[in-house]
Design brief:
The chain is mainly β and 333 residues long. The chain has one helix spanning 3-18, and strands at residues 37-41, 44-48, 54-60, 62-67, 70-75, 78-82, 88-94, 97-101, 104-109, 112-116, 122-128, 130-135, 138-143, 146-150, 156-162, 164-165, 172-177, 180-185, 190-196, 198-199, 207-211, 214-218, 224-226, 232-237, 240-245, 248-252, 258-264, 266-267, 275-279, 282-286, 292-298, 300-301, 309-312, 318-321, 327-330.
């Protein structure tokens, strides 16, 4: 793989971290006030702060955002973890690893997955075909082609009998069985049996579902409380939810009222009072009133996090901008 192709692939993965749009799947990325962002210079990766100052000099082959106080970095074909001083806490020794969540990280050892602690010790044996991160003390795991849940001791607390299982959020988790989606509680009992065509996890007290082809929202009691007149509806973020009507994207509020007309080719979640929007092949940002506040001129953007958005330009450079549109850092500059 060429260096340019590798960087492009890594950028896609970094964008996916920044675009954790479903709050039931997102994680507490930072554990203190020092927010650091990965950068690349001459095919080496380091970190800047929100002012664009280099805090950890580029010296890694790849790097991801911090999670639980540690960042996943690659060196000499192996992955390890560094702290916010750039010091290795866990030396590169894994071929496949994932960010820490609740002091444990999923790793692949051989062909199966387990979890390590922040000392790098295998805390939960590698016996799983796949696994999620830990959330609310539980992680979804795949055994014998079925999904269930374990606790932090590695004990199975909800038997693997689902076709898919997501992480817990606010006491509930999305599960799939026989191609239908439902929600369970932490004791393994159903909040709503699998009856939905599809669904997203709970966010801001509601979950977006599709029932018999109709988008709707359910509350924490499992009751359908809102049926918007749209062809597609997504989870809520900062009290607005993305919707599709006549193949165009806009936003509704929790009353189901359209607050930003569906006129865009695509939109992202509101974050820090701004939302990414795409029109005629270019991306920019709107405010909660629907006004364009950052020009539509980017090839790709992420939602804002700690005051910065990761953007890609049409000359294939990338970087970070602040909420005024000022470039904080840009590759190749």
């Amino acid at each position: 793989m060429s260096v340019k192709l590798f960087i492009r692939t890594l950028l896609i993965l970094i964008f996916s971290v920044f675009l954790q749009v479903n709050t039931s799947y997102s994680q507490n990325i930072e554990t203190n006030n020092l927010a650091l962002f990965p950068i690349e210079e001459n095919a080496k990766w380091g970190f800047i702060n929100t002012e664009g100052d280099v805090v950890i000099k580029p010296g890694y082959d790849a790097a991801y955002k911090f999670s639980d106080g540690l960042s996943l970095v690659k060196k000499d074909e192996l992955w390890g973890y560094v702290d916010k001083n750039g010091d290795f806490v866990i030396k590169p020794s894994f071929v496949e690893t994932y960010p820490f969540s609740e002091d444990l990280a999923k790793v692949r050892v051989g062909e199966l997955y387990g979890f390590i602690d922040k000392s790098g010790d295998l805390k939960i044996s590698n016996i799983f075909e796949d696994a999620s991160r830990f959330s609310e003390g539980l992680a979804a795991v795949k055994l014998n082609s079925k999904w269930g849940y374990i606790n932090k001791k590695g004990e199975v607390v909800i038997s693997p009998n689902f076709d898919f299982a997501a992480v817990f959020s606010k006491g509930f988790a999305l599960v799939v069985k026989d191609n239908l989606t439902g929600f369970i509680k932490k004791d393994g009992e159903y909040l709503v049996k699998p009856v939905f065509d599809s669904a997203e996890g709970f966010s801001e007290g509601l979950a977006a579902v599709v029932f018999e082809g109709q988008p709707a929202y359910i509350n924490h009691k499992g009751k359908i409380i809102l049926i918007p007149e749209v062809t597609e509806a997504k989870h809520f973020s900062e009290n607005f939810a993305r919707i599709v009507r006549d193949d165009k994207y806009g936003f509704i509020n929790k009353d189901g009222r359209v607050v930003i007309k569906p006129i865009y080719d695509k939109v992202g979640d509101f974050s820090e009072d701004l939302a990414p929007v795409k029109h005629n092949g270019v991306w920019g940002f709107i405010d909660r009133g629907g006004y364009i506040v950052l020009s539509l001129k980017y090839e790709t953007v992420s939602r804002f996090y700690k005051g910065l958005s990761l953007v890609e330009y049409f000359d294939h450079t990338w970087g970070y901008i602040d909420k005024e549109g000022k470039s904080i850092w840009r590759s190749g500059k």
